[in-house]
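Backbones bend. To wit:
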Amino acid sequence: MNSKLITIAFISAFILAGCTSKVKYIDPKDSKEYTGIGLDYHDIEDAASKSVQSLLQSGYVKNLGTQKSPKVLAISDVTNDTMQNFSTEELTRKITRDMRNSGKFILTMAMSGSGGTTDKMLKQARDARDNSEFNQYTVQEKGNLIAPELSLSGKIVQRNTKIGSKQRVDYYFLLTLTDIKTGLVVWDDEVNIIKLGSNKSVAW
């Protein structure tokens, strides 16, 4: 009987503690004061912004000024070589969004590497060919998908260094844009983010 009362009391206390804890929204622009030693929203945003700025100011992009149609871009492999578990698509989507907004690039969802995703409906819709359940006049014909001309790949690296009672964490955002036809690199960039915190901080 006593054990049941103790269990009920424990559960009640747990529920009350959950009800009394307050959660509040934070405006992204004001959230830097709550940052940690790991990668956060601002770091991804900063790395993406600096990378796109470097790309759009590159000689390669400036030479695209006379082209009639945007270059078709595919997201290739982007490796997360850090201690933290996050999707590299958080970075690549921010970059490719700004690239598309420049009017010089367009993103394909027909193929991608680990840094992006494909739209599964592209294949499913084409699987409807020769399926009598579908009006074949509405099914996509062969030969309509547009192959990419450029590939965006990269890697995010983390290095930890102990300095006395402090811990320095260096993050390297390495990105490369490759011409798929020739295999030549047309642009590459490196963005560094360095954080300093307590040795007790864990960057994951």
Q: What stands out?
A: The two ends are 44 Å apart (CA to CA). Residues 2-20 form the longest helix (19 residues).
